[in-house]
Amino acid sequence: ASAGSGNGSCIPAERAALLAFKAAITSDPANLLGSWHGHDCCQWGGVRCHSRTGHVVKLDLHNEFVQEDYASFWFPGNHSLHGQISCSLLALPHLKHLNLSGNMVLGDGRPIPEFMGSLRRLTHLDLSSLNFSGRVPPQLGNLSKLVYLDINCGRTSDMMTYSMDISWLARLPSLKHLDMGGVNLSAAVDWVQTLNKLPNLVVLELNYCGLNDYYSRSTSLLLHNLTLLGELDLSNNHLNSPAVKNWLWGLTSLKSLIIYGAELGGTFPHELGNLTLLQTLDLSFNDIKGMIPASLKKVCNLRYLYLEVNNIDGDISELIQRLPNCSSKNLQVQTLGETNITGTTLQSLVNPSSLNTLELSFNHLRGSVPVEIGTLTNLTNLSLKFNKHTGVISEDHFAGLTNLKEIDLSYNNGLAVIVDSDWEPPFNLQLTRLASCHLGPQFPKWLRSQKGIVLLDISNAGIIDRIPYWFWTTFSDAQFLNVSFTKLVVSCLLIWTSCQWKYFFSSQII
Ligand SMILES: *[C@@H]1O[C@H](CO)[C@@H](O)[C@H](O)[C@H]1NC(C)=O
Ligand SMILES: *[C@@H]1O[C@H](CO)[C@@H](O)[C@H](O)[C@H]1NC(C)=O
Ligand SMILES: *[C@@H]1O[C@H](CO)[C@@H](O)[C@H](O)[C@H]1NC(C)=O
Ligand SMILES: *[C@@H]1O[C@H](CO)[C@@H](O)[C@H](O)[C@H]1NC(C)=O
Ligand SMILES: *[C@@H]1O[C@H](CO)[C@@H](O)[C@H](O)[C@H]1NC(C)=O
Ligand SMILES: *[C@@H]1O[C@H](CO)[C@@H](O)[C@H](O)[C@H]1NC(C)=O
Ligand SMILES: *[C@@H]1O[C@H](CO)[C@@H](O)[C@H](O)[C@H]1NC(C)=O
Ligand SMILES: *[C@@H]1O[C@H](CO)[C@@H](O)[C@H](O)[C@H]1NC(C)=O
User: Fold this and answer.
1) Is residue 328 classed exposed, middle or buried when 0-12, 13-18 and 19+ CB atoms within 10 A define those classes?
2) According to the model, what pLDDT value does residue 485 have?
């Protein structure tokens, strides 16, 4: 077929361009290019041609194994294409969609090639997790049709790529999705003003960009242009500014606002109540002081609230009264660890039965744990560790907790878990931390049913007993067992060798 012959079969010049691309790839462990042979390049894996003209319009060679590569940190790129990104891509003049993401070694520490800025028809460019470094080419600003741009470098905290001046972004007015996570933008003084020229943005990810707010703070600019923005992530930056009087609170279309670890100070802004569409709010690991604003009550769609490691320094019942309860979709996740909250009970918590995560660790909560906690039927994750709770936890506290997977009641002021010896728990735990709770003196029989336990910490739990015969089989899949400061008599050491425990702490196995 000659150029433009139609029928979606491959155009020879474009086939040649793809073969040149392939020739610059030195290794392809995931066999992404395995089907790149034969005449019709439109049939090759990852290639899509226009059905009428036959021009290549899409090249998607993203690496599915990127998550795995993240996990095996020291062996990045096990599945990645190796080699160079050939500028033969320029001979694909109708290319609209280019995705090379997740090929962790393809960038090989080089800058993003400048020729990318000449792929004029691109609407979708995903170069995330390619291990680029150096300057982001401002030539990308020539891609005036771009709707989607992702140059998140993957291991974001490394900040190997940078852009001193992001004014080129303003030439991409169609952008809806922009992810520059891990690109060092610390020298980009006017980043807020530049972003304000992208009125179509729906998703904006600027996690680990070294952003500082020093330059834009004084203007207290409200981002009136970003009326469609639904997701904003500014985490791990040096905003170093008060949370109040911030342009952020003008972004009333936000559904997700994630700004953890960004050096926000001062108090919580009342304007939070203007963000009525918010479903996710993460202001954790900042330095915000004082009670959450009463206006938060208006944020009816809030499902995920993360505030840990701030200094709320108030009573939990007041806090709970300020949480929204105006819709059927109630809060699912509430993390308030290390927020300096006080209070005598958790009594007021008992309404939101939609909760699946309740994290209140490292606070100053006192008194007994209310039995109503057992009505939180959707709870999977409960942490009350390092508080000052006292009293007894009984079967009734666990009565409705059929979905509980993780519990941490460690290091309170003498919390006791006292249940009948024939009690059958309604849950199947995975992580069980009950350090310094009173469980003894007998070894708790209810643990026998918890065969899915990965981690068990019952150290210093007042147990003085013979290790039950079922201990070794029930916990044979566990990876972490801590029974130190208990007095356990081992009755059969032989079975020990069949276990796969990675960590076993025990000070007094007799
Ligand atoms: C398109 O393909 C059909 C058969 O699949 C063929 O008959 C026709 O000639 C082709 N047209 C062109 C322009 O190549
Ligand atoms: C592309 O962008 C660069 C840098 O922004 C600019 O110097 C150059 O003239 C542009 N090229 C074209 C063909 O527009
Ligand atoms: C980010 O860039 C600034 C200069 O613009 C530089 O001083 C700083 O060291 C860079 N940060 C990292 C983590 O490379
Ligand atoms: C809003 O965006 C337009 C371009 O789309 C720009 O001309 C204008 O200056 C922006 N407004 C503000 C307040 O930045
Ligand atoms: C935002 O909230 C503040 C304080 O709660 C209020 O005065 C202001 O009118 C609100 N703005 C909008 C646009 O709703
Ligand atoms: C907790 O609040 C008290 C005042 O109630 C204050 O003195 C203390 O510094 C706060 N702790 C932290 C870690 O902020
Ligand atoms: C919502 O909270 C208010 C104040 O905390 C309370 O009076 C009201 O009963 C709650 N409404 C629902 C539906 O739970
Ligand atoms: C509990 O979780 C289920 C499944 O996710 C959900 O359908 C149900 O609405 C939740 N219950 C409450 C009270 O939110």
Assistant:
1) exposed
2) 62
Which ligand is nearest the CA of 133, by number? 3
The total domain count for the chain is 2
Distance CA 9, CA 7 (A): 5
Q: Which residues line ligand 4 (CB under 6 A)?
A: 173, 196-197, 199, 224-225
- For residue 340, the domain's CATH number is 3.80.10.10
Q: Are residues 447 and 476 in the same domain?
A: yes
Nearest CA to ligand 2 atom 1: 139
User: 21-58 burial string, b = 16+ CB within 10 Å, else e?
Assistant: bbeebeebebebbeebeeeebbebebbebbeebbbbbb
Instruction: Check whether residue 387 and residue 444 sit in a common domain.
Output: no
Q: Ligand 5, atom 12: nearest CA belongs to which residue?
A: 274
CA atoms within 13 A on the CB side of 401: 27
Please tell me the distance between residue 186's alpha carbon and the centre of ligand 3 in angstroms: 7
Same domain, residue pair 324 and 359 = yes
Q: Is the CB of 51 under 6 A from ligand 1?
A: no
Task: Decide if 460 contacts 412 (C-beta within 8 A).
Answer: no
CA distance 356 to 334: 8
Its pTM stands at 0.88
Quick check: is 395 in a domain? yes
- Which ligand sits nearest to residue 244's alpha carbon? 5
* Pairing state between β 455-457 and 416-417: unpaired
Domain range for 461: 428-509
CA dist 157 and 76 (Å) reads: 15
* Same-domain status, 299 and 389: yes
In a domain, 99, yes or no: no
Q: How far is the CA of 114 from the centre of ligand 2 (A)?
A: 10
Q: Is residue 51 part of a domain?
A: no
On whether both 272 and 403 belong to a single domain, the answer is: yes
Nearest CA to ligand 4 atom 3: 197
Q: Give me ligand 3 centre to Cα 356, in Å.
A: 40
The first and second tokens of residue 260, run together, are 């953890």
Looking at residue 123, its amino acid is: T
Token representation of residue 71 = 């996990």
Which of 273, 259, 284 has its CA nearest to residue 334? 284
- Residue range 2-60, pLDDT digits in tens: 444 445 589 999 999 999 999 999 999 889 999 999 899 999 999 999 988 999 999 99
Q: Are residues 284 and 405 in the same domain?
A: yes
Total residues belonging to the chain: 510
Mark which of 410, 440, 469 sits at the end of a domain.
410
Same domain for 433 and 406: no
Res 430 pLDDT > 80: yes
Give, for 70, the enclosing helix (H) or strand (E): helix 66-71
